[in-house]
Structure formats: C-alpha cells, structure tokens
Amino acid sequence: MSEISGKKRIVVKVGTSTLTHNTGKMNIARIAKLVSVLSDLKNEGNEVILVSSGAIGVGTSRLRLTEKPKETKCLQAAAAVGQCELMFLYDKLFSEYGVVVSQLLFTSDALDNEKSKAHLIDTFNQLLEYDCVPIVNENDSVSVEELLNGDNDCLSATVATITDSDLLILLTDTDGLYDSNPSKNPNAQLIERVEEINDHIRSIAGGAGEKGTGGFVTKIRAAEIATSAGVPVVIMNGSKPTDIYKVLNGKSIGTYFEAVK
CA-to-CA distance for 8 and 44, rounded, in angstroms? Predict the structure, then answer.
C-alpha cells in the first residue's frame, strides 16, 4: 500500500465500539492514544478531520441508564448529553498537545442543499486553514432520520469526498473485511486489498455490530462512496491507534480499498 504514504488530508472515523468499554463507559486510555496519534500526524504537516460516533453510548452511560434507550426521544436525549461529554474529553485531550478542535454537527439536509453544502465546505476549509481539527458527528439530538437509520461510516465518506481528502480510515472492532464471518468460521481469511467493490464483496459484508448502528454493510457502502470519488479507504482495527502510522508508511494493515481512477 505504498501509494498511501505522503498523504496530507486524512479523515479518520472512529466507532462506538472503539471509543467505549464493554461496560458502555468511555475507553479513556484508547481515546487518549488516538488523540496523541492524530496530534502527531498534524505535527508532521498533515490535515486531520475526525468523524466520531459514540454520543448515544456515552450519553447512556452518563445518564446512568442500564441499557441503550429504545424510544426515539430517549435516544435523542442521550445523544444531546453524550455530544457534550465527548467534546469535553476531546477538547481536554487535544489541548494537551496544543491542538484546537471544533465541532460540526449537521444532517443530510445540509448535504442535499447545494447552498448549505457550499457553506459547509467553506467551513471545513477555513477550519483546516486555521490549523484546527474538525470533529464531526450527525446531529442525532435533532435528526430522527439519522438517529434511526444513519451511520457515521457513510457520513465520513461524504466528508472525505467534499473536502477532497487523500485518505479515509475507518476504525472498527475487527481487523478488516474477511471472506466469511470470523466469529463463525475460524478459517476466515482477511482480505487485504479490494480492487473493486462488486456484488461478491457486498455479499460477504456482515450485519450491525453489537454497540453501534453500522456494521460492515455500512462500511462497504461508505467505501463505495469514497472510492468512487477517488478517495482510497482503509478499514482497520481501532484497538491500536498507533497502527495508523503503519498505514501511512505503506504497510498492509486491515483492508485497503483502491480508489476508482
């Protein structure tokens, strides 16, 4: 994957399963390591955009609820609380490295309307020019459609597309895309490189994960969005954020999806 090396504008999407423990509470050590890696990438001269899930999960824990809410209004309330908690932690951790963060919450409406989309692109570009790290999430506290059906995988792909990014990295709780379900088939093999997303690749994508709304189906959909716009994608395990260095150095980590030329 030597073509990855030297990239400058990188979108990193982190899922709920990476941000939290099995208890539902935040995995502070992992988040801190991810922040240190992203800050270091900025020190190298890269531009970084972080798309972060986890608001509902963090809000559920913060509200001391025993399980994830099922009612829409309760999910929205948990998201509203979790967004504050997540941004507080991100701001605190990034500030230790002198990095300024910003929060961008929006819905699909902003992307469907050309005028709103243009303003959004201008905001991204200006924040990056100011040397900030934009932290993006779907506005789950007000948007029912995104809350129930959306996922930050496809959002991150859209962000990578509209910002003309060089690479999209999806951090998840598996090592990448396997040729069959590794939890059911011990002989499942990791697919290191995908040249084309076809019906076969779509067919082996699994269902939703235990903690998040997006499984491999949404990750493949996200990879299609990004690669068709010329942005390569890497799906990798988020348990070791330092592996991002290996990806950027051209090492084979996770599953690499070639951009459509």
Answer: 9
